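Predict the 3D structure for this chain.
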Amino acid sequence: MGEFKMGRIPHLKISLFFLIPLMMTGCIDENILKVSRDIEINPSYSLPLGPLAYDINEYLESLDTVSFPWPDSLFYNDTLYPNPLLYLVQYGINYFNFNSLISDVSRVENMMFRLIVSNGYPTKTITQVYFADENQVPLDSAFADGPYELQPADINADGVVTAPYEEIVDVPMSPYLIQNMGSIRYINIQSIIYTTRPDIPQVKFYTSYAYRVNIAIRIQLRVNTGEL
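Done. Predicted structure below.
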């Protein structure tokens, strides 16, 4: 009886030693397959929407028809002119169909616009970006707290611009805009360029000066692999 028990126990231990890992492996494999069907991934991609450039040369070139005196004046290409306008408003229109980006808006996790702005003028500028439908009715704006102010370009001791003032502005889009992005057809940029500044009696302007905006969009999606 004793020999029988001693001979069977090692066999039972060996069987359990191999059986338990096999059972565990089967469970692990099943769980892995189950999880892999429901993995949520968040791919993202960026797309340039095009550059825009503005200048106020048309206004500056019309100043030779204005007679003195005016309370303000400026230099244009080293000639002194009266300056009737303290600022000018410039508009840029960029057509873009957001339906071409994604057909299912519900998959959009978030969306961000990146503006690379370059002020080549020695005066400050103010910019607002509007998103409009096919009838040019504004749906939303990029800067919810008001237009974005950009500092003047760097100037030397003679008042001549040495380098434009540049800035990168990232603007997260509101949930409202994401829900209505399928209706967007136009990106309208409104910029105000000032012709005066408080610390310089007569600001110097040249034909080569300009204000430039580059726009790009970054979209992050929410995708469940089980739905693919």
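Helices lie at 2-36, 57-61, 175-179.
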